[in-house]
Write a structure and sequence with these properties.
single chain; 153 residues; 3 helices; 5 strands; 22% helix
C-alpha cells in the first residue's frame, strides 16, 4: 500500500508488482560468484518476515553437497514434525543441485536449485544483464523432485 498498489491477484500473500525493485540498486562485481549472490538475493530477499500465508514463500537454495543439502531440507521440515519420504530422499540425492553461472558477453545466466516444502526441488534459471543496473531479462522454473508437505496455513 505504501507504493500505491496492492499485491497481484486477490490474496494478501502474493507479491506486489514491484516487490523486486530493490534489486536495481544492487551492483555485482561482474564475477560468476557475484551473479550467483544476486540470484540468491532475488530468491530470498522477500523472505525476511514470513507470517501466516507468507510461509508458503520458503525457497532455500541448495549448494550441491548431498549431506549439507539433506541437512538443510530436514531442518526445514523438523519444526513441522515431518520427515522426507525415502523416494523423495533418493531422488534428491540423484538430482543435480549444483549452482552454475554462465557469463556471456552481455548477460549472465544463473542456475540455482531451491527446496520448498510446497514444491520440492525446483531449478530456477535467471538471466541478468551484465551492465548495471543488472535487469532480470528472463526467469524459468522447472520442478526436479516433487514434494508437498500437505500443510495448509
Amino acid at each position: 500500500a505504501a507504493i500505491g498498489e496492492g499485491p497481484e491477484g486477490e490474496r494478501s500473500y502474493n507479491m506486489s508488482r514491484h516487490a523486486l525493485d530493490y534489486l536495481q540498486y544492487v551492483q555485482t562485481d561482474d564475477t560468476a560468484e557475484g551473479y550467483l549472490q544476486l540470484a540468491i538475493l532475488a530468491t530470498m530477499g522477500d523472505q525476511f518476515y514470513l507470517w501466516w500465508h507468507a510461509n508458503y514463500n520458503d525457497a532455500v537454495p541448495m549448494c550441491g553437497d548431498t549431506a549439507q543439502d539433506l541437512k538443510t531440507i530436514e531442518s526445514q521440515l523438523a519444526p513441522f514434525d515431518l520427515e522426507l519420504p525415502a523416494p523423495v530422499r533418493w531422488a534428491t540425492r540423484a538430482a543435480d543441485r549444483q549452482p552454475a553461472v554462465t557469463l556471456q558477453e552481455d548477460r549472465a545466466v544463473v542456475r540455482l536449485v531451491v527446496f520448498t516444502k510446497w514444491g520440492g526441488l525446483v531449478e530456477i534459471r535467471r538471466t541478468f544483464s551484465r551492465t548495471f543496473p543488472h535487469r532480470l531479462l528472463d526467469e524459468q522454473q522447472r520442478a526436479l523432485v516433487g514434494y508437498n508437505c500437505r500443510i495448509m496455513f
